[in-house]
Design goal:
The complex is a heterotetramer, with two copies of chain A (about 325 residues) and two copies of chain B (about 325 residues).
Chain A: E1 2-6, H1 7-21, E2 25-29, H2 45-53, E3 54-56, H3 61-73, E4 77-81, H4 88-105, E5 115-120, H5 135-139, E6 145-147, H6 152-164, E7 169-174, E8 181-185, E9 197-200, E10 205-209, H7 212-226, E11 231-235, E12 238-240, H8 244-254, E13 257-264, H9 269-279, E14 291-295, H10 304-309, H11 314-327
Parallel strand pairs in A: 2-3, 2-4, 4-5, 5-7, 6-7, 10-11, 10-13, 13-14
Antiparallel strand pairs in A: 1-8, 6-12, 9-11
Chain B: H1 6-31, H2 47-52, E1 61-63, H3 69-74, H4 79-86, H5 120-133, E2 140-145, H6 152-163, E3 168-174, H7 183-186, E4 203-207, H8 211-226, E5 232-237, H9 255-262, H10 266-276, H11 282-304, H12 311-316, H13 323-327
Parallel strand pairs in B: 1-2, 2-3, 3-5, 4-5
Helix pairs in contact in B: 1-10, 1-11, 4-11, 5-6
Classes of the chains: A alpha/beta (about 325), B alpha/beta (about 325).
Bound molecules: thiamine diphosphate (TPP) (2 copies) and magnesium ion (2 copies).
């Protein structure tokens, strides 16, 4: 059995499930109460769970995350929503210097089971301060786990997994996906953090993509199939820790790999995936250089045509993939 | 109402009408799918920027917010280039890269709108530092919302500006809400201006829908700053008639409340007072409104005719060229 | 001095001596090259944590600072494990991973020292949120320096804690300086406690070198918090005799000022009062000091004998194991 | 002619030079005045240039950087010191969302010629919140330039270049290098941002290293030379924009490359260098897989042996380089 649901609804359902099952779970953030969340993710949650467990905060990202850290240290299971992932910039100290390191710094005396949800990505015309994809920052922080759900099921399953994890987990959702509908199972499975997913099977080329670029890569794979190119799309889902084995196995099989991210190219997450592949034992199996297809190295512009040009679209993936297969 | 000259009154009323009609035009363009992104309208708040900037001089600076059309227009920006920017055109103030949330007119001292709540507050203090270090009697006006008072950035800027007696007026546009968080709930003080005492600076609350009152109170603060006596926190009480942005369902406030504030329309009220005090006649009032309407029509025409920006120029616009690059 | 029981006085005096002698021992070990890193000594400030934590109960929590030995000892930590930690040994509180700046004793409610100025303040608010949401009458004591008052984190935490009436006592240890910045110059108020009015909470300044006065004022704040009436800002005026850390050349203060404050030694003063009020005899006073000296000797022995931590266990200590990992 | 100078002295001399030559240059930061800077970098600068141009701030990193942005927008040339690069976490919004993007967002109307200096790196026993190497975060931000001086001459020359640049530049100095002495020229040349440096010539292997790892790599190269292995050490100096040509040319010649950074491996900067190399036309010239030698994926521990083990030391470089040459 399955049903249809938007990504936003899936996030909401997962939060509701968790709050129902575990009284330690609660949610804090800006406008998550009666407003229903800036993207409508929370909707009526505050009515269902009350303002004690769905807490509207002041506009104080550093303070909110810090309170999440404190509550988590005391055994609660807070979910903190950062309205746009761009505003994690305000909270980096609490995310990185506190949440991520506390367990280590105190020699294991305490954990910080904190879940931070923050939507990233461009495509809404919100320009440079509301459209970034900042996963590379978080992926570089020892002590954090980082997930990037690319569809409704994962949005729920990864969130449930994050809430079961004794470590701080940052969930980078995607603004454009919120309104998109997906087939979902009747009951959401709890994912395993660190386990990737093979989205399509293929033999000519591996595409590793994250977040909305997974959707675009699957679209591209369909088009490429018509051109006789068989693509295996891998979604790591958790970008820290990374399911390296799944990627290497696929690359070993196909011999070619295209890495697709929305974030600006230079210093982005896919550089790590590229380095991981070329450093590994599959280096010898590579029939072509590892190639990245990424956002342009610009702040996200307001103009819709420029904005579209700034990040990989389906046709860009098709072209990059085809040229990789055809040239090598 | 304090007595005012016919010339000042005419200018002020025309600017308020320009703001109102500019935003109504924007709303209309958006509704017709000709404008994208999001928008934050300041309809109902026009008296604050127009009153506050009466004292603005060459060399003064201002910082603005996500709700910044009024600041920009009152600061003297060109309406056509503003509209072009919102229409994402190359002849817009930001060449279509910034949009409403980043609109700026640096030539007139407007250092820019800001998509980050509280983001402009330390920048304003820094502009004032520059004015002070250069030995000028210039000042910076820092527009910010009530919501930004919850940000650490706000606190740090007030701390530093008060320590150094910087010539800055922190002008809090208290329109009663952040996105949905009531200021009265967020801050356990009756007036946000009371927070000034924590920084050892004067604080004053003014009716933000009374243009002449705003001009007077901000005028005092500006004079104090010009004399080198340091910052002031001015709180202007006002109200936004529209929702926070397009995603707002207005669940957090009542229709009655909105209606009550519409009755205190700063434009109607000013016009009424001017008529009553015989500063302007009804025909003159009508002519001002008509002129403003024509200004906006011209702006829309100018904007609509703008060219589309190019990817190449966007790529070249990330970094300012170094002196050597300029030479080459 | 307010009357106090012999038992309370004995405990308090012994703890103050433990703190003083612990830090003198640390200083000596450092001087002899047996301890590395940096260190922040609270010699001269001992009355604040000891007085403040008189009201500490099971389930209460505290957050501490980079200058946290006193908080840790007054909170009831084991001196041997503390010394072992500073000696970077595996039997230290943090298994040698954290050192002085991250010392914590989570079992007694000490959520940890913090290398980040202001870092613990939102965490304290979060701990108090947990205490409140669980319906306990527990409280959190948030130790912080005068310097941290300039941080956005401090402001955001006070904003949120006051909005939600959280059971937290913000205890500002005003030792007159940040590193070199005088509090009197940094903040244009006579007393930091005046800043409480900006958050609509009570503020009180107390002589931080008067143990019983600290106990009384913090006691009131704790009772208020336990009753559910929300936070208080308490400012304890005190002084650090030593430099900020080992890099300090003490250029920003005079010898005379230091001497003046040494004359207000909180330990000598308390002992003197106890003698005068005939709570304790001179022999008893001497015995308490001697006992504390023995405690520290034992701690050094314990610490010195600790094993060296291993790289393998460090690597395993970055993430807390998930339930599945624990099972496996 | 040449002379000897520490890295800290070189930074100081460059600042003094710049302040002498250009009255728009000034310095702000915590304890940069009478204290002389946490690492003694400033020393007597405040006496030479006065407290107006060497400004002691409160502990407010976000505020300070924000003020730097504001002053830079108004045409000043501020240098902002962040006491430890770890505390850039507090200031990320102003660094990333404001400074880096403003020029772009306002369509070129303004520049932000702001220099941010911040020391990174481990080795001082200061543990996890005072020892990070965070360059990967900054390198990923379009609009920023990022430099990492590895010796005294570069510390001065890159700083002078940064002060000539119309864009925001972050200078990541290294705490352990501050006290190290170097031969320096009588007059510091002004570097060109984006131009790397070949530190040693070699034929068997290219090492690309940053900051202190350049020093360690040069040491390693000497040892390797004795073992008959000829190493070319490349120091990019500017890590954004990267001097790709210099690296590729060297790799093409040697056919083998080892990338050395102090920062934790996963998601670190050298992943970008690795990906850049394998994506490039020199892919075919590679005789061995590109290899990284990086810090362990842990927060920096306090214990000195663990701390040493956590980042690449000379012997680690020797071993990694030798095995790369000998195995391939
Ligand atoms: C740092 C940051 N946090 C959150 C937001 C999302 N946001 C945009 S406007 C807004 C409300 C701002 O309220 P206020 O300062 O009162 O200004 P108003 O919208 O009422 O004019 C919020 C929460 C943001 N843009 N930046
Ligand atoms: C966010 C941050 N900024 C700066 C520092 C460097 N620093 C450490 S302690 C200190 C002074 C703190 O002063 P205060 O809060 O009064 O505590 P005290 O040292 O006087 O006990 C500074 C600037 C830091 N550790 N964290
Ligand atoms: Mg508001
Ligand atoms: Mg202090």
């Amino acid at each position: 059995m399955s049903r249809t649901m938007t990504y936003a609804e899936a996030v909401r359902e997962a939060m509701a499930l968790a709050m129902t099952r575990d009284e330690r779970v609660f949610l804090m953030g800006e406008d998550v109460g009666i407003y229903g969340g800036a993207f409508g993710v929370e909707n009526d949650l505050y009515e269902r769970f009350g303002t004690d467990r769905v807490r509207d905060t002041t506009i104080s990202e550093l303070g909110i995350v810090g309170m999440g850290v404190g509550a988590a240290l005391m055994g609660m299971r807070p979910i903190v929503e950062i309205q746009f992932s761009d505003f994690t910039a305000q909270a980096m100290d609490q995310i990185v210097n506190q949440a991520a390191k506390l367990h280590f710094m105190v020699g294991g005396q305490a954990n910080v089971p904190l879940v931070i949800r923050a939507p990233g990505g461009s495509g809404t015309g919100a320009a440079a301060q509301h459209s970034q994809s900042l996963e590379a920052w978080f992926a570089h922080v020892p002590g954090l786990k980082v997930v990037m759900p690319s569809d409704a099921t994962d949005a729920a399953s990864l969130l449930l997994a994050a809430l079961n994890d004794p470590n701080p987990v940052i969930v980078l959702e995607h603004k454009l996906l919120y309104k998109q509908s997906f087939e979902v199972p009747d009951e959401f499975p709890v994912a395993r953090l660190g386990e990737g997913r093979k989205v399509t099977e293929g033999t000519d080329l591996t595409i590793v993509a994250t977040s909305i670029e997974v959707q675009r890569s699957v679209e591209a794979a369909k088009i490429l199939a018509e051109r006789g190119i068989s693509v295996e799309v891998i979604d790591p889902r958790t970008i820290r820790p990374l399911d390296t084995a799944l990627i290497l196995e696929s690359v070993e099989k196909t011999g070619r790999v295209l890495l697709v991210q929305e974030a600006a190219k230079f210093g982005g997450y896919m550089a790590e995936v590229s380095a991981t592949i070329t450093e590994s034992e599959v280096f010898g199996a590579l029939q072509a250089p590892v190639k990245r297809l990424c956002g342009l190295d610009v702040p996200i512009p307001y103009n819709p045509n420029l904005e579209r040009a700034a990040v990989p679209q389906v046709e860009d993936i098709v072209e990059a993939a085809a040229s990789l297969v055809e040239a090598w | 109402m304090a007595v005012t000259s016919k010339e000042l009154a005419t200018d002020a009323l025309r600017q308020m009408w320009q703001i109102r009609l500019f935003e109504e035009a924007v709303e209309d363009l958006y509704g017709r799918g000709m404008m994208h992104g999001t928008m934050h309208l300041s309809i109902g708040e026009e008296a604050v920027p127009v009153g506050a900037l009466r004292h603005f001089r060459e060399g003064d600076a201002l910082t603005s917010t996500h709700r910044g059309h009024g600041h920009c227009i009152a600061g003297g920006a060109d309406l056509g280039r503003m509209m072009a920017e919102l229409l994402a055109k190359d002849n817009g103030y930001c060449r279509g890269r910034g949009g409403s949330m980043h609109i700026a007119d640096v030539a007139t001292g407007n250092l820019g709108a800001n998509g980050i709540v509280g983001g402009g507050v330390p920048i304003a203090a820094g502009a004032a530092l520059s004015q002070k270090m250069r030995g000028t009697d210039n000042v910076t006006i820092c527009f910010h919302g009530d919501g930004s008072v919850g940000e650490g950035a706000w606190h740090e800027a007030l701390t530093l500006a008060s320590m150094w007696d910087l010539p800055v007026v922190f002008l809090c546009e208290n329109n009663q809400y952040g996105m949905s968080m009531p200021a009265s709930k967020a801050f356990k003080v009756e007036h946000i201006s009371e927070k000034a005492t924590a920084y050892g600076i004067p604080g004053e609350t003014v009716d933000g829908n009374d243009l002449e009152a705003v001009a007077e109170v901000v005028g005092r603060a500006v004079e104090r700053a010009r004399r080198g006596e340091g910052p002031t926190l001015v709180e202007a009480l006002t109200y936004r008639w529209r929702g926070h942005s397009k995603s707002d369902k207005n669940l957090y406030r009542t229709k009655a409340e909105i209606a009550e504030w519409r009755d205190r329309d700063p434009i109607a009220r000013y016009a009424h007072d001017l008529l009553e005090d015989e500063v302007l006649t009804q025909e003159e009032l009508d002519a001002i409104q008509a002129a403003a309407r024509q200004d906006i029509r011209d702006a829309v025409v100018f904007g609509t005719k703008g060219a589309e920006p190019t990817v190449e120029e966007m790529l070249a616009g990330v970094y300012a060229p170094t002196p050597e690059e300029v030479q080459a």
